[in-house]
Automatic annotation (TrEMBL):
Domain of life assignment: Bacteria
Species in which this protein is naturally found: Maribacter spongiicola
GO CC list: plasma membrane
Name of the protein: Na+-driven multidrug efflux pump
Keywords: Cell membrane, Membrane, Transmembrane, Transmembrane helix
Subcellular location(s) of the protein: Cell membrane
Membrane topology designation: Multi-pass membrane protein
Pfam families in alphabetical order: Polysacc_synt
Transmembrane residue ranges: 21-41, 53-76, 88-110, 126-150, 171-204, 305-327, 347-370, 377-398, 404-423
Length: 452
């Protein structure tokens, strides 16, 4: 299958996957409320905080191991690939065991403190349900490693489609449980069974798809484990610094400007970033092929994919910016039923961040493609902290307009830091992004004209 065809398939699979994920977040809500009642459902959401938080405990090991596996496989080093596979599975399994033990301890402490006694959900039901959900969440730690099999086989679209089937199965299982009148234990158990069945199928299908050379069985290697762990910590920092930025800025606005200002600040930020999901799909479409070409040392092809991704996202973000400048504010007023007042200055500041965000976010995939996440983590933390300082000063002296400027500082800083280093990882210069604009645009238009 040609590179163009694979990218097209990845794009279509990414669109479908994104749609199902949005549906997964919204579809079951009315059924929950209808079957259990609003208060009971609210208690359920509170309980699910525990498995959600535990979900961070994989420390990015799956991502680190998966990326290492692909780069090694593409380079043709089958012995090292087998070692990475075995050590990756071993480390993930170890983390699942440790996380399960910690979860049991946490549940014991909460139960001893009579936390579940205060819930609308029966204490025993809550303990069983949360335990099932925790185990289900822990088993998904294998998914990043297994996903690497498909990407190494250049069948990333198949992996995305299987993940979409998994999400759809969760929806169907949950819907059947709710419509049948069952409670939290049955719902949690249904989710666990779906995860178990899917993970087994996903693993064996992935191995078959890759047809991985069985000549080497792989050996436990402390250096490989240490490397995966170090890179895993780098990947973990991505959600950490983003949480620091988003939650920290919200807290600052609340303390300085009040609750109503928080409502304005967060709703404007949310709407101004609403089109970003479209841009992110381009990144997920290109990334698997980009990484494989890097692993094969085909940097000329990889550089072209990299440039095309950035150019496409920037062009789309520019059109999105124009749309939001002219039509975004009226839509915002309609969306909020004219209950919140937003100045044009604040609106323009937030919407302009789309351009900067599109550039650095797309460039950031180079860090994952070569499996070097630590530098991006440092850039992210640095940018977030500086942004929070500007948000504080801006809120204090220039109200919401100043807070908006503080928010956009992050995107500006990350463009300055991420783009040059990302280009360096791709063995190219930042000026190459500009110098190839015309031929790259011509190439994109030829793809559109010929329908890939």
């Amino acid at each position: 299958m040609s590179l163009k065809k694979r990218i097209l398939n990845n794009g279509l699979a990414s669109i479908l996957q994104k749609g199902i994920r949005v549906l997964e977040q919204l579809f079951l809500v009315p059924f929950f409320i209808s079957a259990w009642g609003a208060a009971y459902y609210g208690e359920w959401l509170t309980l699910t905080i525990i498995p959600t938080m535990i979900g961070f405990s994989d420390l990015g090991f799956g991502t680190a191991a998966g990326n290492s596996f692909i780069l090694s496989f593409a380079s043709g080093n089958m012995k090292k690939t087998a070692d990475i596979n075995k050590n990756g599975i071993y480390l993930i399994s170890l983390m699942i065991g440790v996380a399960m033990i910690l979860s049991i301890i946490v549940l014991f402490i909460l139960d001893y403190s009579a936390v579940f006694e205060k819930s609308l959900i029966n204490r025993v039901d809550a303990l069983y349900a949360v335990s099932f959900l925790i185990l289900a969440r822990l088993l998904t730690f294998y998914s990043q490693m297994i996903q690497a099999y498909y990407r190494a086989a250049q069948r990333a679209a198949l992996s995305m489609n299987l993940q979409t089937i998994f999400s759809s199965s969760n929806l169907v299982a949950g819907l059947v449980i709710l419509l049948s009148g069952y409670g939290v234990i049955a719902f949690a158990l249904s989710q666990l069974l779906v995860v178990v069945v899917f993970t087994l199928f996903y693993y064996f299908k992935g191995r078959k798809t890759l047809n991985f050379n069985q000549e080497y069985k792989g050996e436990i290697n402390r250096n490989i484990i240490k490397s995966i762990a170090n890179k895993g910590l780098g990947y973990l920092m991505s959600p950490v610094w983003q949480a620091l930025y988003f939650q920290g800025s919200t807290f600052i606005v609340r303390i300085i400007l009040g609750a109503e200002a928080v409502a304005v600040y967060n709703t404007v930020r949310t709407l101004s970033r609403s089109l970003n999901q479209v841009f992110y799909m381009i990144k997920s479409t290109v990334f698997p092929e980009l990484q494989f070409e890097i692993g094969k040392q085909n940097y000329k092809t990889a550089q072209r994919l990299f440039r095309l991704a950035i150019l496409s996202v920037f062009a789309m973000s520019f059109m999105g910016l124009i749309f939001l400048v002219f039509f975004g504010l009226p839509f915002y007023n309609l969306w909020t039923q004219n209950q919140l007042e937003v100045s044009r200055t604040m609106w323009y500041i937030f919407t302009s961040s789309m351009l900067f965000n599109a550039i650095w976010w797309t460039t950031e995939m180079a860090f994952g493609a070569v499996n070097q996440p630590k530098k991006m983590a440092i850039f992210g933390i640095t940018g977030a902290l500086i942004s929070l300082v500007f948000t504080y000063l801006g809120s204090k002296y220039f109200n919401l307009e100043g807070a908006a400027f503080g928010a956009i500082i992050l995107d500006i800083i990350l463009v300055i830091l991420v783009v040059p280093y990302g280009c360096k990882l791709m063995r190219m210069k930042p000026s190459d992004l500009v110098n190839h604009i015309i031929p790259d645009f011509k190439y994109i238009f030829s793809l559109i004209k010929n329908k890939i």
